[in-house]
Structure formats: structure tokens, C-alpha cells
Amino acid sequence: MKQYVLPALLKALVMSVCFTLLCVIYGFISGNPYEITLIPEVIFFLLFFFVNFIEYLWKNRKR
User: Which key words are in the record (predicted)?
Assistant: First the structure.
């Protein structure tokens, strides 16, 4: 189980950073600055992490 935490953590980190970067780029293009507080960012990160962790556990449940 410990072997699936790090890949899920890294995948969640990449997804979270890419999502934030896309929102910032969209904010620059549209002229509406992207403003998000820390709490939603943490919630998104935790959501991505738990979804990825469950995905890794589900795919490798027979091992």
C-alpha cells in the first residue's frame, strides 16, 4: 500500500499544478485575473490525490 502513495501524490501534484497553470493562462488571455484561495487549492489537491490513490489500489488489487 505504501508503494502506491508516492505515485498518487506525484500525479496529484502534477494535475493540480497544471490545472492552476491553465486557469492562470486563461485569466491572462480573457483579462479576468485568476484568483483562488488556498482552501480550494488544498481541496482540489486532496481530491486528486485520493482519486489517484484509489485508482492505483483498484488496478493493482490482485497483487
Answer: Membrane, Transmembrane, Transmembrane helix
The length of the chain is 63
- Map out the domains of the chain as residue ranges: 1-62
Q: How far is CA 20 from the centre of its chain?
A: 9
Task: Give the model confidence (pLDDT) of 3-50 as tens digits.
Answer: 888 899 999 999 999 988 988 898 899 888 877 788 888 999 999 999
Whole-number Å distance between alpha carbons of 61 and 21: 34
Is residue 56 within 8 Å of 4, Cβ to Cβ? yes
User: What span, in angstroms and rounded, lies between the C-alpha atoms of 1 and 63?
Assistant: 11
Q: What is the CA radius of gyration of the chain?
A: 15
